[in-house]
Design brief:
The chain is of the alpha/beta class. It folds into 3 domains: about 5-30; about 40-95, Cholin Binding (left handed beta-beta-3-solenoid, Ribbon), CATH 2.10.270.10; about 100-265, Peptidoglycan recognition protein-like (Lysozyme-like), CATH 3.40.80.10. It contains 8 helices and 13 strands. The chain has helices spanning about 5-30, 45, 130-145, 175, 190-210, 230-235, 245-250, 255-265, and strands spanning about 30-35, 40, 55-60, 65-70, 70, 75-80, 80-85, 95-100, 120-125, 150-155, 155-160, 180-185, 225-230. The protein has a 6-stranded mixed β-sheet with strand order 8-11-10-12-9-13. It has a 4-stranded mixed β-sheet with strand order 2-3-4-5, with no helix packed on it. Helix 5 (about 190-210) packs across helix 8. It is globular, with a radius of gyration of 22 Å. GO terms for molecular function: N-acetylmuramoyl-L-alanine amidase activity. InterPro entries: Amidase/PGRP_sf, Amidase_domain.
Amino acid sequence: MTKKKRQQHRLIIIFSCVILAIVFAVVFSFTHLRENQPVHYVTVSQLNQTTFNHSGWYYDGRNWAYVRNRHKVTGSLTINGVHYRFNHNGIQELPYQVNYQYELSPNQGSNQQAYSSYIILHDVGSNSNGQQAAAYMQRTANSNQAYANFVVGDGGVVYQIKQPGTVSWGAGIEANNNAPVQIELAHTNNDETFQKDYQAYVALARDLAGKYNIPLTLDQGGRGTRGIKSHLWVTQHLWGDHHDPYEYLQKFGVTKSRLESDLKSGF
């Protein structure tokens, strides 16, 4: 091969590599999005529309959809590091089961929209299963001024207490106002039940972190550092005297490092 042909061969290889890199970048950006779009809270009829004016997540109080190029996404898509699946109608297939039996009425709790800085993880701190904890929050939300958006328990059931995105009363004023999602983990003495609860707990936190563009980090940084936080972190950096959920998790062998890894990567 002559020198000229060798140079031409190198140029062809370099050009091919550039083209492949561009193609890969386009494909990756189409299937792995880093989005900071607000969540759009809509009615059922609005979610059932076929075209939309804005991109981002849409939520009708029960179902979620993601809109790109004015249409709901179907199939699979990774958004903010979290993998999502959507049915043929563009409705998300949730990786957990939601029960709305104990959801607060509009005149219970707060309807104020929270800033999207933190997702706060708790455990109930008592020997209460999911149904017991959810029912108690429903009965006493206003009188005790204490509840979370979700309680997870009873073998992986997610009890929605108040719509995500709204302020809940679980960790003090500053934390509450900056947390669109707070999650309580109910207690059990059964290892199999705990494993199901824990998987739903992590799946719920990851799912909603992706939707509110909150980093999949655990207890990193100080006041104002966005991410998923334990109630212990809130005590250390903002206000309070709680240390959950680590003591309860440790009872079943789940360390902070494992929780951090599971939140980052999923199962």
